Automatic annotation (TrEMBL):
Cofactor comment text: Binds 1 nickel ion per subunit.
Listed GO biological process terms: response to nickel cation
Domain Transcription factor NikR nickel binding C-terminal positions: 57-133
Record-listed Ni(2+) binding positions: H80, H91, H93, C99
Family designation: Belongs to the transcriptional regulatory CopG/NikR family.
InterPro entries linked: Acetolactate_synth/TF_NikR_C, ACT-like_dom_sf, Arc_rbn_hlx_hlx, CopG/NikR_regulator, Ni_resp_reg_NikR, Ribbon_hlx_hlx, TF_NikR_Ni-bd_C
Physiological role: Transcriptional regulator.
Protein's name in the database: Putative nickel-responsive regulator
Residue spans of biased composition, Basic and acidic residues class: 158-173
Cofactor dependence: Ni(2+)
Pfam families (alphabetical): NikR_C (PF08753)
Organism from which the protein derives: Aquisphaera giovannonii
Length: 183
């Protein structure tokens, strides 16, 4: 069952609202409500993954020179030492020397962070980054909403448990008779 929507009001300064509206447009949210939901969910996810014991998913990106010492061997050893945490890995050759490794990790946030730090800290890694997200829903009944852009002029937000359409942000409002409210 879908979590029912609840309306509430927010009072903010004019400059903050203008900046928020620019943010909403740049990130292609169809309206203010979707943008607020997206930001609130992102803040809650961040709060959850800051807790060491929370279940998290992590994406580690590494760029390294595979000719630098035993770096490829060391990265492989670290991953094999944590087979229960490494979900998958992708290796891409950027040029004759440099490689990009993308590693998907799962586990307690503190364990994922530690393994990511170990991987990023291997001598010879040029750049490394960890992006963490909650592995379990942070709101509602397991239905999470997200926004993404398909590169064809607009993005959209949808929940994971129903199909979605590819229409511009004003398409629904244009079909709706009567008064149109801004965002």
């Amino acid at each position: 069952m879908k979590d029912p929507l609840v309306r509430f009001s927010v009072a903010i300064g004019g400059e903050l609202l203008r900046r928020f509206d620019r943010y909403r447009e740049e990130h292609r949210y169809p309206n203010r409500s979707e943008a607020v939901r997206g930001l609130m969910t992102a803040a809650l996810v961040e709060d959850v993954v800051e807790r060491d014991e929370s279940e998290a998913m992590g994406v580690v990106t590494l760029v390294y020179d595979h000719h630098a010492g035993r770096i490829a061997e060391r990265l492989t050893e670290l991953q094999h030492g944590h087979v229960e945490r490494v979900v998958t890995t992708t290796h891409v050759h950027l040029d004759e020397r440099r490689c990009l490794e993308v590693i998907l990790l799962r586990g307690q946030a503190k364990v994922v962070r530690q393994l990511a730090d170990d991987l990023i800290g291997v001598k010879g890694v040029e750049t490394g980054r960890l992006v963490l997200t909650a592995a379990t829903p942070v709101v509602g009944n397991g239905v999470q909403s997200h926004h993404h852009d398909h590169g064809h002029g607009h993005g959209h937000r949808h929940e994971h448990d129903h199909p979605h359409t590819h229409e511009g942000p004003d398409a629904k409002a244009a079909r709706r008779p009567g008064k149109r409210r801004p965002g």
